[in-house]
Design brief:
The complex is a heterodimer of chains A (about 525) and B (about 250). By secondary structure, chain A is an alpha/beta fold. Chain A contains 23 helices and ten strands. Chain A has three domains: about 230 residues, MetI-like fold (Orthogonal Bundle); about 160 residues, D-Maltodextrin-Binding Protein, domain 2; about 90 residues, 3-Layer(aba) Sandwich (D-Maltodextrin-Binding Protein, domain 2). In chain A, the strands form three sheets. Chain A has a five-stranded mixed β-sheet with strand order 7-6-8-5-9. Chain A has a three-stranded antiparallel β-sheet with strand order 3-10-4. A two-stranded parallel ribbon of chain A has the order 1-2. In chain A, α10 links the parallel β1 and β2. The longest helix of chain A has about 45 residues. Chain B is α/β, with parallel strands linked by helices and about 250 residues long. Chain B has two domains: about 170 residues, Rossmann fold (3-Layer(aba) Sandwich), CATH 3.40.50; about 70 residues, no CATH class. Chain B is built from eleven helices and ten strands. In chain B, a hairpin with a 5-residue loop joins β1 and β2. In chain B, α5 crosses α7. The termini of chain B are far apart. The chains are: A alpha/beta (about 525), B alpha/beta (about 250).
Chain lengths: ~525, ~250
């Protein structure tokens, strides 16, 4: 599909994401200015505070954005998933340049000018409002400009906590290896950043009193107009959807940030909607966010795998028996989290140790044990998840006695393409990944039964089940409804054929009479 | 106390923590209508003396009286609005037009707009700048001499009885300086203003002063009329006067 064609098909969604992006940046910069400028002014008055406050702002800015989101999720009031967390993080990032430039701008006012102002009989407030702030305004606007451009970038990460914005396309594009999605997301974000830079640059020149400014006189109204237009575009009708249904029949459905999880969430969402329940989709959340959100009550339901719950959440040592794992998870989730585990959906998504099909045929590889003789010359590529979890890399390499020439930790969705393009020679993918067939990859069998069972289930809050009766009906119908082959096919419809998940789910539900 | 002494220093000392006295035990009084010039090299304390008058600084010991009242007893805002202040290069506000710069103190004192504009035009004419040409310009569009004139106009705006001038003509070329000095002398005598002016230029002191106060290392060495100053045998005064000598002639 050409990029142009993609845009023609998807412009309403793209526009929505652009709008979400602008809203996030706009609000966070507004809040950061409201906090940052007075703090900056204060620091020029109380010299002793300057070091500590700027130091703290500095440190906050060095926290990687994903880590910051992670810290924020469990916090009451400012945390959770969705735009609030994203806004808090964005404000934190925007504060430093704004505070710093306010301080620099005010301290940079010519001492003789300040002295003249005081000597004319201005009060401290008058000196600040009439002399210092106007003269510092150019530098302060530079700070706001820097903060805005940074915020446009960081906001793309906000998609990981379900805040929306252009990051949704970027993450989805990475996952599905879809350049159109990537391009649409990244290009739009770049255009937004450039536009913000340009217009705030014009504004900045307004406040340059040393240079000739007659030429830029027209710019202030233009900037005001653009900001107002952006705000109207961003806030017009946004957030108005679904507000009219009662809280009783409203369900927040979440998913992890990969195709299959989003697809399983979409299946439940559409089935609930068909039963008159209004659904809030919080799809494609990164890391352990769905779990945190479920436990804290921000989510009512999300799809999970029993093995993941067993090892990553409950911290048990991996074991092989699917029944034992399922029962144990069911029991402990009920007592620990007040969360119910649905009947298994009928397929497993376990780690699939993959090599190139060509290598498998040439070296006659069938089982993981067969590969042990070659791995010393191989480079491996593993997702962050696999590297860190109990049933992941350390146990796996030990169990099979594997040594690699190099192990690279990378984004899971990139490992498939890294393998097929010979950047690495062995990866740990997902067994239901649609691209296993399309990229001619070969799954080595787990002959030592190292990997624990990963049966797909839904995790639902007990209070949600009581509140929305349709939930139990839907989950019962989905028991044993999806086979591994079927899941691979559905994944491939989205990742391989680049189809819209909503359509794929709709079609599948129709074909199954669900 | 004499009623015609507008400013009086009584045993004033000013020092900063961990430093020698910047001003030591200074006493002097400035008479109504006179122009007192404080002459001295950089760091002699003459600018500090000036700032003690409008309470940009407060004395460490002793008292500075303005109109018979200690500066520390004045409301600093009210005090400063009664004292015009001119510094090198004017210290103009770069983001204000000339009119707004000149009209600053009246507008701080909440004069009505019509009265301010009238006063601004009057003052610009007084310092030799055509109001129609200059009112709406910005300081950077003016030459150094023109900016200095605006600085003087701004100091005069609220018709203060006292002017403080800190090397007001120091940054100007010699010809502009000479003509501004003449105009300034003319202006103060015409308006009957009292002025304290700080300079390191003995020629300027001799042209403008009613009395010259010679300062050195925080002390007032000499306080004399220009005639007596020329005849003084104080070594510091002689050193200054020798700079006027070119080719063995004065």
């Amino acid at each position: 599909m050409s990029f142009w064609h993609f845009l023609q098909l998807n412009w309403p969604e793209l526009l929505l994401l652009v709008r979400q992006h602008i809203v996030l940046v706009f609000i966070s910069i507004l809040v950061a200015v409201i906090i940052g400028v007075p703090v900056g002014v204060l620091l020029t008055r109380y010299r002793v505070l300057r070091g500590p406050v700027l130091g703290i702002a500095n440190v906050m800015q060095t926290i990687p954005s994903l880590a910051l989101f992670g810290f924020l999720i469990p916090l009451p009031f400012i945390g959770g998933i969705g735009s609030r967390t994203a806004l808090v993080a964005l404000v934190v990032y925007s504060l430093l340049p704004i505070i710093r430039n306010t301080v620099t701008g005010i301290l940079g006012v010519e001492p003789s000018v300040r002295e003249a102002a005081v000597a004319m009989g201005m009060t401290d407030g008058q000196v600040l409002r009439q002399v210092e702030l106007p003269l510092a305004m150019g530098v302060i606007v530079t700070g706001i400009r820097v903060a805005t451009v940074i915020a446009v970038g960081v906001t793309t990460i906000a998609a990981a906590v379900g805040a929306g914005g252009l990051g949704v396309y970027i993450f989805r594009g990475l996952r599905q290896y879809d350049n159109n999605l990537l391009l649409a997301g990244a290009l739009s974000a770049a255009v937004l950043a450039l536009a913000a830079d340009l217009f705030l640059g014009l504004l900045e020149r307004q406040f340059s009193f040393e240079a000739k400014r007659k030429t830029a006189r027209f710019a202030l109204p233009v900037v005001v107009l653009v900001v107002v237009a952006a705000a109207v575009f961003a806030f017009w009708n946004s957030g108005g959807s679904g507000k009219n249904s009662s809280a009783q029949e409203r369900v927040a459905v979440g998913s992890k940030d990969f195709t299959e999880s989003a697809l399983l969430a979409e299946i439940v969402a559409q089935m609930l909607e068909a039963r008159g329940v209004s659904v809030e989709r919080r799809l494609e959340l990164g890391g352990n966010l769905p779990h945190e959100a479920l436990v804290s009550g921000t989510l009512d339901l999300y799809p999970e795998y029993t093995g993941t719950s067993y090892t990553a959440i409950l911290h048990h040592t991996p074991i092989g028996d699917p029944r034992v794992v399922y029962e144990q998870v069911k029991q402990e989730y009920a007592s620990q989290f007040k969360v119910e585990v649905s009947p298994p959906l009928g397929f497993e998504n376990t780690f699939a140790i993959l090599v190139r099909g060509a290598d498998a045929r040439r070296l006659n590889l069938k089982r993981i044990s067969d590969a042990a003789a070659h791995t010393a010359q191989w480079r491996a590529g593993f997702g962050q998840d696999f590297m860190s979890r109990a049933d992941g890399y350390p146990g796996f390499s030990k169990s099979y006695g594997l040594k690699f020439a190099a192990v690279r930790e990378m984004d899971l969705s990139l490992t498939y393409i890294a393998l097929s393009s010979r950047q690495v020679d062995l990866i740990a993918g997902n067994s239901t990944e649609g691209r296993i067939a399309t990229l001619d990859l070969f799954q080595l069998s787990d002959d030592r039964h190292y990997f624990p069972p990963y049966e797909a289930v839904y995790l639902v809050r007990q209070d949600s089940l009581a509140r929305v009766p349709a939930l139990r009906e839907v989950l019962t119908k989905l028991a044993n409804a999806i086979s591994t082959d079927e899941m691979r096919r559905l994944n491939y419809e989205i990742d391989g054929n680049k189809r819209d998940p909503k359509e794929v789910v709709k079609e599948w539900l129709g074909s199954r009479g669900l | 106390m004499k009623i015609d002494s507008l400013v009086q220093f009584q045993n004033v000392t000013f020092s900063l923590p961990a430093a020698a006295n910047i001003i030591a035990n200074l006493s002097l009084s400035v008479q109504q209508g006179e122009t007192l010039v404080l002459l001295g090299e950089s760091g002699c304390g003459k600018t500090t003396t000036l700032k003690l008058v409008n309470r940009l600084l407060a004395p460490t010991a002793g008292e500075v009286l303005v109109e018979g009242k200690a500066t520390t007893a004045w409301d600093p805002i009210a005090l400063r609005r009664r004292i015009g202040y001119v510094i090198q290069e004017g210290g103009l506000f770069p983001h204000f037009t000339i009119a707004r710069n000149v009209g600053l103190v009246p507008s701080l004192s909440r004069w009505d707009q019509a009265r301010i504009s009238e006063r601004v035009r009057e003052l610009l004419s007084l310092v030799g700048l055509e109001p129609d040409r200059f009112a709406d310009r910005y300081p950077r569009e003016l030459s150094g001499g023109q900016r200095q004139r605006v600085g003087v106009a701004r100091a005069l705006a609220a018709d203060p009885p006292l002017l403080l001038l800190d090397e007001p003509f120091g940054a100007l070329d010699p010809l502009t300086r000479a003509s501004l000095q003449r105009e300034f002398a003319d202006l103060t005598s015409r308006l009957g203003k009292t002025a304290i002016l700080v300079t390191h230029d003995v020629r300027e002191a001799l042209i403008l002063a009613s009395r010259i106060g010679l300062m050195h290392k925080g002390q007032l060495l000499l306080l004399e009329t220009p005639e007596h100053f020329l005849a003084s045998d104080n070594p510091q005064a002689r050193a200054y006067l020798d700079t006027l000598t070119v080719g063995g002639k004065r």
